[in-house]
């Protein structure tokens, strides 16, 4: 391909030379220049060639004069790129002080000014140098193009330091001016939630999802967290119900959202009239946390609730959350033997400190202070990662922590399968 282009260039040059020879012909032209005693008399062809030669010589002289400057500029660019690369490596390696020095040096290069300053801000933040962090943010803002990024980074630092109000003041003008990028939207949402104003931030979640700035799983988790905070901040039952009605079915079925709704409903004294909403979330997506929160809802129909929970055991026989919930409901209904049985099964399936605590409350309700004391002590020990001491069952002879036989689990075709870990 290169040889073909060279051949075309040679043919074009030959054609141009032939065209010039034809145009000149037998008359090379005449040029006469006189200024005072200075007289130049020559042919037009020679005058044109001489002019081209003089221009070429002038260009060569200028090129030679600028050559040292070009060498220095190229050297500075190579050094800046090298410093930027080393600074990024140092930042990734956990050496923020060295990274900051290298990146600030690289920021002198105009083409690397903004990215180097952004990375230097991160290095100063990682190093804990608040004064340098502020100076670098101001330098980033002074670049013009980095003004919005500097505001977002400043707001993120304010939020991390527990000053959510300051973060809101920084980001709100950008939001009103429709200049807030996705990272700023997320920081503003988190700041409003931290100030007890999560409900105000809910419309921003749709903007954040539309921007597709985060992976779907990350966005779902963040949205569920904010929705849960909004539910937890509801001051009364009316606002709780109204907010719950605004959520989509997909949002209601998220485990953190359903748990937050159930816990806030419990705190506000709502029970059987909202239990169906929580049960719908359980049907869509099983979660031990949700079933535990559902079991804590106040109820005047405890027997029916126990029966419903026991029916769920057919599909989830090894669920520690469900076994713990049934044990708690039986304890509240003074079904001591059943409660102990379910709590022992919960322990065998990994319920841990929560099951020991429920056993302590169960024994205390039966005025068995010795067992209650040992069970509650085990709850604290297990929570600290220590071994539990033996506690003999009140309605049996062996230790309540003795592993029980795993229930048989069958798939949809009725074939026995191993229980899930």
What secondary-structure arrangement, pairings included, does this model have?
Blueprint: H1 2-24, E1 31-35, E2 38-42, H2 44-92, H3 96-106, H4 113-127, H5 130-142, H6 147-160, H7 164-176, H8 182-194, H9 198-211, H10 216-232, H11 237-246, H12 249-253, H13 255-267, H14 272-284, H15 288-295, H16 302-312, H17 320-332, H18 336-348, H19 353-365, H20 369-383, E3 409-410, E4 416-417
Helix pairs in contact: 2-3, 2-4, 3-4, 4-5, 5-6, 6-7, 6-8, 7-8, 8-9, 9-10, 10-13, 13-14, 13-15, 15-17, 16-17, 17-18, 17-19, 18-19, 19-20
Structural summary, described in words:
With 421 residues, the protein is mostly helical. Helix content is 70%, strand content 3%. It contains 20 helices and four strands. It has helices at residues 2-24, 44-92, 96-106, 113-127, 130-142, 147-160, 164-176, 182-194, 198-211, 216-232, 237-246, 249-253, 255-267, 272-284, 288-295, 302-312, 320-332, 336-348, 353-365, 369-383, and strands at residues 31-35, 38-42, 409-410, 416-417. Strands 1-2 form a two-stranded antiparallel sheet. Strands 3-4 form a two-stranded antiparallel sheet. β3 (409-410) and β4 (416-417) form a beta hairpin. The model has no long low-confidence stretch (mean pLDDT 86).
Please describe the structure with a list of short key phrases separated by commas or semicolons.
4 strands, 421 residues, mainly alpha, 20 helices
Relative strand content: under 5%
The value of Rg in angstroms is 39 Å
SSE topology string: HEEHHHHHHHHHHHHHHHHHHHEE
Helix content: over 70%
From the structure provided, what is the oligomeric state, counting identical versus distinct chains? single chain
What overall geometry do the principal axes of the alpha carbons give?
elongated
> What's the average pLDDT?
86
Low-confidence stretches: none
How far is it from the N-terminal to the C-terminal residue, by CA? 64 Å
What is the total tally of β strands?
A: 4
What structural class should be given to the helix and strand makeup?
mainly alpha
Contiguous helical run count: 20
- Most strands sheet: 2 strands, antiparallel
